[in-house]
Amino acid sequence: MLSKNINSKMKKIIKSLGCEVYGIDLKTENRPKIIEEIKKDVTEHRILIFKDQGIVSGDRHVEISHWFGELESTFYKHPKSPHPDVFRVSNDENEGCTGVGRSGWHIDGTFQPAPFSYSLYHMESVPKEGHTLFIPLTELIERLDKETYDCWNRAWMVSDRRYGPIHPLIYSHPLTGKPVLCFHLGMTTSFIWDYKLPTEKIATTEEYEKLLSSINNKINQDNGKYIYTHKWESGDFIISDNLAVGHFAHPSTQAPRNQVGLRILHRTTIKGTHPPSK
């Protein structure tokens, strides 16, 4: 753990998810030992929120991302993006891509053969509102009743991208072996029951809508008790285990600039190396 090896501090376990990290300057940190500790801590805590980072340049954001693997950039390149591999989103179309992350709870890259392994976020311009919501996927699955678990465990999601891959809804995380979800509530064309088994069949429209509602309802159960709402502060830089954490952009992310101020979020994604499988 970082706090055991250098003069840094990790605090505030966020429910069962995440740690805030103080005392690390990501703009200059290059020590191999510390980078390895950061990678281990991301796997353990799933989200690391590095505080007081100031403004991290696009080039440096990409350098940090390379600690975790090969970048995979599959999104529209906004003219004001600071680097070709940095996805720039905003509440002002002149400043970044708008409407991003609002179609439903998801992990990033479900339309790829292997979803992205990590996502790295930096808020360059912080508005008064514009939160990002996170949910721990293992705990979500472990809280399911048997009937719901058995239903989800039979389902395979079909990406809405043409000729997109088919992924199991529930599978094992490639590093921890814990159960996680491959899902996108806004980018799923259909579900297939018992894929590649003799009982395989495509879900009916009613079954499809019922399953989407089931996932959404379980995430929001108990008034969203297990949802962590990250209220961005100046200098925040988040490294997330994309496969272990679902996320969703709060409606306020698209609030008008003249009401909440300018929101500019930079994000990179790391190419997945393990296609989800049973």
From TrEMBL:
Domain TauD/TfdA-like: 20-267
Keyword Endoplasmic reticulum: no
Molecular function terms from GO: dioxygenase activity; metal ion binding
Keyword terms: Dioxygenase, Iron, Metal-binding, Oxidoreductase
Family in the record: Belongs to the TfdA dioxygenase family.
Name this protein carries in UniProt: Alpha-ketoglutarate-dependent taurine dioxygenase
Name of the gene encoding the protein in the UniProt record: tauD
